Amino acid sequence: MKKYIVGALAVLIIFLAWRYFENRNAERDRLEESTALIQQQIKNVGKLVVTEGSFSQVYTYKDTKNRFLDVLPARKRALIVVNTKATVAYDLSKLVTEVDVENKTVHIKYIPEEEISIYPDIKYYDITQDYLNQFTADDYNKIKTRINKSMREKVENSTLKSNAKNRLISELQKIYILTNTLGWTLTYNDEEFGTAREMQELKL
Hints:
It is a single chain. It is built from 4 helices and 7 strands; from the N terminus they run H-E-E-E-E-E-H-H-E-E-H. It is an alpha+beta fold.
C-alpha cells in the first residue's frame, strides 16, 4: 500500500512540476510576444507628423532719405502681398523610449520639440522709387526677414501649433492603448498615465 501512495505522490509531484514549468514557459512566451508588439508599435509611430496652414498678409514698405543737406527727400515705396505656407512638425524618429520588460513598463524619455517651417511667397506691387533712393538687395533682405518674423509670430499665435500637438498626442496614444491592453504601464518624466485623458493634458 505504501508503494502505491509513494508512487502516486511522485506522479503528482512530477505533474505539478511539469505544470509549473509549462505555465512559466507560457508566461515567458506571452511576455516576449507583448514586448515585440510594443516595440513594433513604437517603431510604427516613429514618423514625421506634419500639420500645414496657410497665411496671407499685405504690407506697405516705405523709406525716406534726405539728400543735399536734408533739403531734398528721396522716397521709395512698395506694396507687398505675402501668401505663406507654414508647417509645424514633430519628427517622432527622434522619440526616445525605454522598455522595462521586468516591470512591464514603457518609459518615454524624450519627445522632440516641434519644428516650425515658413515658406513665404512674396510679391511686390506698386513699386515707386526716387533716383537717389532706389531699392537694393539689402532692402529686399530686410523685407524678407521682417516678413518671416511676422509670419512666425502668426503661426505661434494660431491654432496650428495646438493642432500639431493633438496629432502628436494621437500618435502617442497608440502606444498607450497597446500597453494598457497588454497590462503594461506607460510613463513620461517618471509620471504614469492612468487614462487617455491624461495624455491629452501632456505638457511638453
